[in-house]
Design goal:
Strand content: 15-25%
Number of domains: 2
Strand order of the largest sheet: 2-8-7-6-5-3-4
CATH topology of the largest domain: Aspartate Aminotransferase, domain 2
Order of helices and strands: HEHHEHEHEHEHEHEEHEEHHEEHEEHEH
């Protein structure tokens, strides 16, 4: 693993230096400098993550938790060390509250299928918002079809912010779970999650927070938030795909039944009865994504070597610059104007289809997302079928924004806007 000197003492991130840590930026795209503005979908990976994954394959690969030989014990030790890194990242009380999953989608499905099946009944309500990712909508709809659980949806206003007054009115005696995003993936809205959780606690309602778009940009303290569940995906945090985390309060996880059966989640098995393993392994059936977990640990090390304070200052300034420059473009409409935004700007340009925008920008090496961003209800709320979306990471700078603006100028010329 390549060591990186902390950057937290710098007023501004040295983005040129950071880009050198990401091998993908050494290549041109269509002969142009790569401008990657799709980190909300999946962030690029620093060299240290790749080296960590390669290193475990070359020096310490074996299955974990099962072997008495030294190679397996070493692999187990490195795998479980990452669980402790995640615990510190989220400031969880203990490592048994950290469950490794394939991603945030699987984490939410785990809660829906385990907590939901065990503790929700027909007529009970799950309260979400209008700006949720599909992964925080569909699992609850599946539970509705299976058990008759009701789904209540809190509205958002024209700025793309949660209507807190209506949200509070939707909390009732049948509300048994609140599941909300921390940062909206299609709008970048930072939800006042602390206030939401305080409201929930006044009514004794557990809260699940989708933190996929928050953790890459800001420090998260699950004890300070007092949320009951918090989920994240490694690939949005500059780590590998196929690895994610479910944080859950130990007392809740302890009471929940496993949702998958197989190896490693058991203590003993007979044909008559199975005794389940302790936390967190009760929820980790089968051989885990060992290499992905090691890569996630390296990604956490990398982000923390830069520091969330420095990341926040840099990205806030970059977002402000991007919003200012994009607002100067004729016929461009930014979707949502939340007071607190993180990482994301969605926009429409005249009546040009977002896929056409994305295709034209690609010719200049600019990568933006085009589509509904797995948030079709959000698109419906703003009267569009799709948007183009620029999302930012630690390797983006004003040159990237300027390239985007210039590329959109070409789109205007082509479509005579």
């Amino acid at each position: 693993m390549t060591a990186m000197q902390p950057l937290t003492n710098l007023r501004e991130l040295d983005v040129a230096r950071i880009r050198q840590d990401f091998p993908i930026f050494s290549q041109p795209v269509h002969g142009k400098r790569l401008v990657f503005l799709d980190s909300a979908a999946s962030a690029q990976k620093p060299r240290s993550v790749m080296e960590a994954e390669r290193g475990i394959y070359e020096t310490a690969y074996a299955n974990v938790h099962r072997g008495v030989y030294s190679l397996s014990q070493r692999a187990t030790s490195e795998f479980e060390a990452v669980r402790e890194k995640v615990r510190r990242l989220l400031n969880a009380r203990e490592t048994r509250e950290i469950v490794f999953v394939r991603g945030a989608t699987e984490a939410i499905n785990l809660v829906a299928q385990s907590f939901g099946r065990a503790f929700l009944s027909a007529g009970d309500e799950v309260l979400i918002s209008h700006m949720e990712h599909h992964s925080n909508i569909v699992p609850w709809q599946m539970l509705r079809e299976e058990k008759g659980v009701q789904l209540r949806v809190a509205p958002i206003d024209d700025a793309g912010e949660l209507d807190l007054e209506t949200f509070e009115k939707l909390i009732g005696p049948r509300t048994k779970l609140i599941a909300l995003t921390h940062v909206a993936n299609a709008l970048g809205t930072v939800v006042p999650i602390e206030r939401v959780i305080r409201l929930a606690k006044e009514h004794g309602i557990p809260v699940l927070v989708d933190g996929c778009q928050a953790v890459p940009h800001q420090a998260v303290d699950v004890q300070a938030l007092d949320c009951d569940f918090y989920v994240l995906s490694g690939h949005k945090l500059y780590g590998p795909t196929g690895i994610g985390v479910l944080y859950g309060k130990a007392e809740l996880l302890q009471a929940m039944p496993p949702w998958q059966g197989g190896g490693d989640m058991i203590r003993s098995v007979t044909f008559e009865k199975t005794e389940y393993n302790e936390l967190p392994w009760k929820f980790e059936a089968g051989t885990p994504h060992i290499i992905g977990a090691i890569g996630l640990g390296a990604a956490i090390d990398y982000v923390q070597s830069i520091g969330y304070d420095a990341i926040g200052v840099h990205e806030d300034a970059l977002l402000a610059y991007a919003l200012r420059e994009l607002s100067k473009i004729n016929s461009l409409r930014i979707i949502g104007q939340p007071r607190h935004r993180s990482g994301v700007i969605s926009f429409a340009l005249g009546d040009v289809h977002p896929h056409d925008i994305g295709t034209i920008l690609d010719q200049d090496g600019i990568c933006v997302r085009a589509g509904h961003h797995c948030a079709q209800p959000t698109m419906d709320r703003f009267g569009v079928s799709a948007t183009a979306r620029a999302s930012f990471g630690i390797y983006n700078d004003r040159d990237d924004v300027d390239a985007l603006v210039a590329g959109l100028g070409k789109v205007q010329e082509m479509f005579r806007l």
